[in-house]
Specification:
With 206 residues, the protein is α/β, with parallel strands linked by helices. The protein has a single domain, classed as Class I glutamine amidotransferase (GATase) domain (Rossmann fold, 3-Layer(aba) Sandwich), CATH 3.40.50. It is 30% helix and 23% strand. The protein has six helices and twelve strands. It has a seven-stranded mixed beta sheet, with helices on both faces. α1 packs across α6. The two termini are 21 Å apart. This is DJ-1/PfpI family protein. It holds the Pfam family DJ-1_PfpI. It comes from Ramlibacter aurantiacus. InterPro entries: Class_I_gatase-like, DJ-1/PfpI.
Length: 206
Amino acid sequence: MTLIQDTPQHLLGGLNVALLISHDSSREQMEKTRGALEEMGVTVSVLASGRSAVQVLDGDGLAQSMKPHLAVAVADPDAFDGVVVIASPQGGARLALDGDARQFLARLDAEAKPIGAISDGVLPVLSAGLGAERELSTPEHLVPAAEGAGAVVSQQAMAIDEHLISLTDPAGLDRFISHLKGLLAGRRVQTMAPGGDVSSAVGEGG
């Protein structure tokens, strides 16, 4: 798929993207990703394993509470055009055991919707069965899990395999977001309704 680097806003406006976060995930990664998408007219919803507040960490390690918009158990995959998984090592392991999170990711993957994973967010993706024969960029400690799942471990800090994008080094977050926008726009172009009207997952025009 050709990625659109300078993504036109009309290709993203009205889309719905989920941020699936874990306990102790990076507040900076979450806020930067959400802000960049919302600037383009994307509606971003924060999902977590439950409805209770989760702890997110600032760059200095200080914790803050954040209440998700939805529990992943009640989130409708058909209502979303893509998802980004942001997780800490322990949080990623918990998400990987969450059957609702696995099902949510598998449903989006089945419809070739863009799926992004930052650092340990790769583990829930692997647990959902999405890694087989796909190139993924993973933290060093997750390489055995990735290889065990049949993934091709990338030597690069970021890997893109069709609609799946993964990032190991948070320093590359801007580039990750740019390519994520391109994947979202590319899917919208591919799923344009007859007559040139563009539809999102929930039927909103661009």
